Amino acid sequence: MDSTALKEVHRQIRDAQPDSTRVRLHRAISWLNRAEQEDEDTDARFLFLWIALNAAYAQEFGFENAEREQLRKFFDALLRHDKQGSLQDILFKQFPGPIRTLIGNRFVYARFWKALREHDSSDQWAERFAKDQRSALQAVVERRTEVVLSIVLDRLYVLRNQLVHGGATWDSHANREQLRDGAAILGQLVPAILHLMMRDDAPDLGEVAYPMIHI
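The structure assignment produced for this chain is given below.
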């Protein structure tokens, strides 16, 4: 379902929604629409999709760990309401290959960059990476949606940080594969998330970080 279809569905139900949910969906759909217009600029597409995701779940920002925990809780709540398994299908039917590639890519593994910043010449990060990779691939084999989704989001969060904080060059060949895969995965996850948020039994996500102010 693309942004146009989501906008039409939302138009039919928005008057019955809490203000915060209505604002979240309105904003998220607008950024999804912008992302869909980026056919060639993968960097921009990825960032617009991440903004759409932020618009959907965020309550307040400030600390990275708190934001990542907020994102995990958001997906945990959605998974409990995803009776048709739409998120599971995206992970295991549409993107099994790209997800395995992300799991095995050290450049989207936070501990790799932490070791580099701290000039840690030990193999601790590599040992942990190998262990995490084995656990993640086992979760893929067992189709443990909650675990795999959390791992994928952790990897994509590292990629997001590289772009947002200027840690990558625009249109660089250095990170094309993970950007293409990340944008493709988010391009399916975000519409599915927004559709789930329109259900009558969708979880209450609380107030938005920046409420709409009428002047």
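Interim note for the steering committee: The chain has a mean pLDDT of 92. Residues 3-197 form one domain.
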